[in-house]
Amino acid sequence: MKKGLTASTVKIIAMVCMFIDHAAASVLQGLLYAGRFNMESALPDSLTGGDAMYTTPMGMVYLLLRGIGRISFPLYCFFIVEGLKYTRSRLKYFLRLIIFAFISEVPFDLAIFGTPFYPLYQNVYFTLAIGLAMIWGIDTFKERENGKALTVLFWLCAIVFAPFALASIMFQWLYSFFGQIISGAGVRVFFVGLWVVIILATVVSLLIVSKKTKKELSRKILVIIAFAGTACVLSDQTDLFGTTTDYGAIGIITILVMYLLREYKMPEILAGCGALTFFNFFEAPGFLAVPIIKAYNGERGKYNKYIFYAFYPLHLLILGLICLFFKINPTG
Questions:
Q1: Which residue has better confidence, 280 or 103?
Q2: pTM, rounded to two decimals
Q3: Spatial CB neighbours of 265, under 8 Å, sequence gap ≥ 6
């Protein structure tokens, strides 16, 4: 047996970090909102920005626990890419993720939102399943001579969905700065305008790539953009319907980046953590996943895979029932 951590050990680490994160996001956050702890800020009022809850001693513990939780998502993304490479049946792998996504939804809503049904935010299994479908599609079609019908479909997805996903991400950034200026109907006009500009830029870029590069390279780029854009839209409908999966389009981009660097273990995990942090600095503690993956020896280890699948809904159900029994509202 090689030195280092097996896949089962790494997944156990991810599970522990995830449990810590969800316990803080449900039970501890609910207790903070309810004022169950000393709410006197540990920092001067001038530094709290008007929100002193997270600067109390227990609030800082909350932030520490959520920081530990950031380690888990890069690890799960890493094993989604590994799973594509080593699974015996990609279809069965995808179906397992989807089945457990639906099983987990009520426990997730109960633990995180304090209600058995919260339609605006879905659990991370949906993100991982969509991410797997994306890289499965890319892996299947990027090397093939696709017919005219498929090529047209890829072009449509690439010039509609990919710009929509990019516009959504950019819009969230820009709106955070200019939200006070853009209001009402102006929000939609601004978003649609941004979307149209990116569509035009995408069309021009793809035409240049198709003319200036070899046919095989231009096909790969088209397929990657088409599948990535579609996956981002499926996972994140914030701008249309206000719904998103956990991590949304940012999670999809993370899986894509890791897939593209899958032959190089350390650049893969570094780039994945970097993508998460680039879009949300709160994800920076995820870089603690890097030494864990560095210690990963590539061996499977001994475990029952269904234990890892079942842990997610089971621990969320327990946290949700604790919140119900003690009348804790995670959302305040």
A1: 103
A2: 0.93
A3: 293, 294, 296
